[in-house]
């Protein structure tokens, strides 16, 4: 099957000028991923004047694999990559990374914890140390993502992405933790982590006299790349090349909270997609209600959606007497819906997704596994990894207040920040469903779910 033909504004976006920078914002399900694919295919096609090798880049591996599988994208001059893969390859080809010496995941958190232990005795009594290592990891990611190389840049910056402001007086202390972490990391044999690698890419590009590998870069889910990552992509194309950025700020789930405006993109006008072509009206109404909750932070880049035309049943909210009953409902519902179409059980964590699907056949979508024309069946994934994908039906299990917002996030951030972050994830998860959505909970339902009874059909098993 080939790509659906662009409609209306979509066609204008595919054929935007072949040089310069372009920004396309759109709400969920408006065709950004498809048009990113179309644009990348157009820019790399030998029939296009000014064509050249093109990179289609996105944040998460599952989406990159999904894009790779689109038939129209299997062409010689087009590479589909995650940002991590692009940056690693570039530095590796330049001899600047050895093997896999880029730090990430729990090992990074452990080193940050050691850095906190090393710095904290000099500032005994500070409330800063009440924060968990995940909070420090997030702050260090933010500093790296902004590309700050001097303390002054950090102390003078407006710290976006936190509902609760972070006092400027504490920033030199956090900077010390970051420096200490980087020293410890180097001692452990790691030159970079996945956040500061972008600055290394930029530094290398500035000194690189070789011909540019890519003439055009198309970015999907651009809101999840840090400003420094976007700047590195802008630096990676020649002057007669192009960067096209597609994004949705309502789905910004990686904490950077910065607009494309701070990313080195200079554009004449911003294109906006408002027609949701994925969700039924009832599902889109629920997503809109989530985005209208008081803690859901909306930036200037938020695009108000138009109500979709597709009809479908209202989302079902199943109130269960306990977790055992809830899991029985989730498994039976997923098996029933998976007979005729694709159904994803999307949970907040991998542990919850595996738990919810225990005993049934479900394909785990961790680093791929979901293709352009996936067959009917049950798929399981997390809110983060479902990014960019879509399914005929979605089941969101374990949506009680005990689990959503996530406990670890609540412990690491204060309640306002935690709710702002977690409601974006919930928004992403809800908007993955084309026509059917089932949400289950036991105990008290999550405070992140809207309370308007008109949005759901509420049932007990
Ligand atoms: N021109 C079109 N013709 C037919 N279907 C379309 C068209 N454009 C988009 N769609 C359909 O709309 C749905 C959403 O498209 P897509 O995944 O590209 O949206 P998106 O904006 O990237 O969404 P999200 O940001 O929520 O992941 C898909 O099912 C896609 O096939």
Automatic annotation (TrEMBL):
It catalyses: Couples ATP hydrolysis with the unwinding of duplex DNA by translocating in the 3'-5' direction; ATP + H2O = ADP + phosphate + H(+). The lineage of its organism: Bacteria, Bacillati, Actinomycetota, Actinomycetes, Streptosporangiales. SUPFAM superfamilies: P-loop containing nucleoside triphosphate hydrolases (SSF52540). Signal peptide: none annotated. It holds the Pfam family AAA_19. Its EC number is 5.6.2.4. It is an enzyme of class 5 (isomerase). InterPro entries: DNA_helicase_UvrD-like_C, DNA_helicase_UvrD/REP, P-loop_NTPase, UvrD-like_ATP-bd. This is DNA 3'-5' helicase. Residues 5-293 form the UvrD-like helicase ATP-binding domain. Keywords: ATP-binding, Helicase, Hydrolase, Isomerase, Nucleotide-binding. ATP binds at residues 26-33.
